[in-house]
Amino acid sequence: MIRTFPKDFVFGAATSAFQVEGGAREGGRGACCWDGFLQRPDKGFDGEEASDFFHRYREDIERSREFNLQALTISIAWPRIFPAPDGRVNEAGLQYYSDLIDTCLKNGIEPYVVLYHFDTPLYLFQKGDWLAQETAEAFLQYARVCFERFGSRVRHWITLKDPFTLASGQYITGLFPPNEKFAVSKAVEMMHRMMLAHSRAVRLYKSMKLPGKIGIAHRLEAAYPIKWQPANTLAADLEDTLANEFLLDATLAGGYRPETLRKINRILRYEGRSFVPNEAEIEVLTEAAGLTDFLGVNYYSSHFIEYYDGENKVVHNAQGKKGTSTFAIRGIGRRIHKTEVPSTDWDWSIFPSGLYDMLLRIRDNYPAKPIFITENGIGIHEQLQDGSVQDDRRIDYIRQHLNAVLDAMDEGVEVKGYFIWSLMDALSWTNGYEKRYGLFYVDYETQQRYPKKSMYWYKDLAAKRIMLTVNAIQTKGVD
Ligand code: BGP
After folding, report:
1. Is a pLDDT exceeding 80 seen at residue 477?
2. Pocket lining: 407 vs ligand 1, CB cutoff 6 Å
3. Fewer beta carbons within 10 angstroms: which end of the chain, N or C?
4. How far lies 15's CA from each of 177, 258, 293, 380, in Å?
């Protein structure tokens, strides 16, 4: 069957400053929390040069136009704008993003501008990062400068990307700086503070009467019980509450629903902690929920959960060796690889119906907002052959996920666009450069770009707006 995308459906690709820019010591950029962390001997990669977007953005954006992309997400590196604790604004940083935004517009590419994608300035990180009130205050100041400088040209703002991915990396798996493990209470506190910062930024933006729209992007991965048994069902529900529901409530429901708080506190009991937001904070969330214009959904994979009451255990699959990862948190659950669900070399399940389920669940449980799929993509070990990469697996992956999006749209979900992670191969926060996601292959020796087969496929899709359906996807996650 042939399926058609609406005329106003946006086909785009995603980037993030730290993962593509490089130029870490240029343009007056201050240090960010990742710089020193990645330079530790056990890491083996860093963001000093990344995909050199800092110098090559003009050609990358021209190429994006040639390949029919209509939009790009770009993030602003906070440490380029406020490099030091003295509150000085770095004019060179502002000029860089001003030129970048103009280059997009000149090429007919709409920039979707992200204010924060994991790269806290080092001086704020050292004071406690999002756990410190100072970070929230500084974020608002930073947001104001960006809105003032770019607000007349930017039509879509994303305040924050993936609070749970960040919180989990920082305080549960410990794979992100500051490397702390199993401190779920800190992860919860931090997500709450990020949501308050998002809310205040939304309120500020609206008060400035600028012409664009503002939203937030969450990485939402569905959690299913590995088997329908009460203990597994509860475990999946708890994982889902921590990773999805907590943030969706804060974003769209204007506060945490009683059952969400009850489940969060049930999880925190294992640490002897509790989470009790105060009324003034809830008011801030409530006001922003009404003002937020859209929701960004980032989706890669889903999880199949088993009840777990053993010791906390996280093993990271750093090298892309299938079957080497473990994630088991006492009081929440253990992620199990479900044999009939395909997965990537990094053990990420490939499960498009998880995206469909997530979109319908948002439709059913929250006030309606337009949705953009702000990230979706697959990391693969790839090699350049005759100037291209035959990445049929990526085409399959994108096709299946777009099919799930169309299914959800048929059910009344308002999805307005889709961004592939990522425009070009980029740094993966915990896997370096071997895990490639790009529509363009990057030869990191020369920084040359090569369009992959998927880029040609996507170019055609963006031009024709029709897609052949794949076999009916599995719509149930559990036995
Ligand atoms: C998302 C992040 C992206 C990107 C992606 C892939 O959560 O927002 O920045 O990194 O995950 O993840 P990874 O790089 O770990 O493979």
Report:
1. no
2. no
3. N
4. 21, 36, 22, 17
